[in-house]
Amino acid sequence: MTFQFPVRPPNPRRVLLLISACAICSVGLAISGLMDRARSRQEVADWTNEQVVPTVRLVRPERGPGEQDLVLPGNVSAFTTGSLFARASGYISDWRKDTAPT
Known about the structure:
By secondary structure, the protein is mainly alpha-helical. It has 1 helix and no strands.
């Protein structure tokens, strides 16, 4: 002998109440999310507007010393050295054209 519970159909009023409660919760959650996003966006916009204002430090100009030595690090030397010799002995009396290659 098996005992079965009688199956009653769900009450339509109760189902409607449950569905409407779920819908109200979903709408409330969506509105809460949208308002939080709008508030966050406004905070970012306010922070950005605060950062746009440049900070400037003013200094009164003063006359400096008359002369100042410029000391730079480093030294100057040639990579290679060579001797230069004249092709002919004597002095140049007249220079008529440039012999540099063009």
